[in-house]
Write a structure and sequence with these properties.
By secondary structure, this protein is mostly beta strands. It has a single domain, classed as Porin, CATH 2.40.160. Helix content is 14%, strand content 46%. A hairpin with a 4-residue loop joins β2 and β3. The longest helix is centred in the C-terminal third of the chain and has 24 residues. The protein is globular. The termini are far apart. The mean pLDDT is 84.
Length: 168
């Protein structure tokens, strides 16, 4: 299952559509501006909120939280002891499952894995549309909304970290 994300619209307060590989709108990422914390909603084409994504307040390190129906689904943060800067850990709310995200996040070339098994690949390669990246869900039984939310989170965290490095 392949999704296309128009990257140039990414930013807090910006809304952008995620399309399937046939050009049909599938998900809307609704950025919520004017909030105390960075917040996004992933909606279906009817406007129903599938997942809520927000920055965790009062965390020592930048952390994004993904919720479904008001219940925690996952927590995303940069891996603590990693030589690679672009290495993120996703702890699912079930308490035992962790996803690993690594690669060149800012270049939109990274993978999401579970226990060494590839779940999704995010890449700009083989795309002719500028400022667009593909999100290929590899496993049929994977939750596309969760994987898209994870990609939104790690890209947001990596861009925020880059801005902090420039400012600091």
């Amino acid at each position: 299952m392949r999704f296309l994300v128009r990257d140039r619209l990414l930013g807090l307060g910006d809304d952008y559509w995620i399309e399937d590989d046939h050009g049909n709108k599938v998900f809307l990422v609704d950025g919520k501006a004017m909030r105390l914390r960075d917040t996004f909603e992933l909606k279906d084409t009817q406007g129903r909120v599938l997942v809520d994504i927000h920055q965790k307040m009062f965390a020592l390190r930048d952390t994004m939280v993904i919720e479904r129906d008001g219940e925690p689904l996952a927590r995303v943060k940069r891996k603590r002891l990693s030589l690679l800067r672009n290495h993120y850990r996703v702890a699912l709310a079930d308490g035992g499952t962790e996803l690993d995200v690594s690669g060149k996040i800012l270049d939109r070339e990274f993978a999401i894995e579970y226990d060494g098994e590839l779940l999704a690949v995010i890449s700009r390669r083989r795309l002719h549309v500028r400022e667009t990246y593909g999100l290929d869900v590899v496993r049929e039984d994977a939750d596309p909304a969760l994987l898209i939310a994870v990609a939104v989170c790690v890209i947001h965290l990596a861009e925020k970290e880059r801005e902090d490095d420039r400012d600091g």
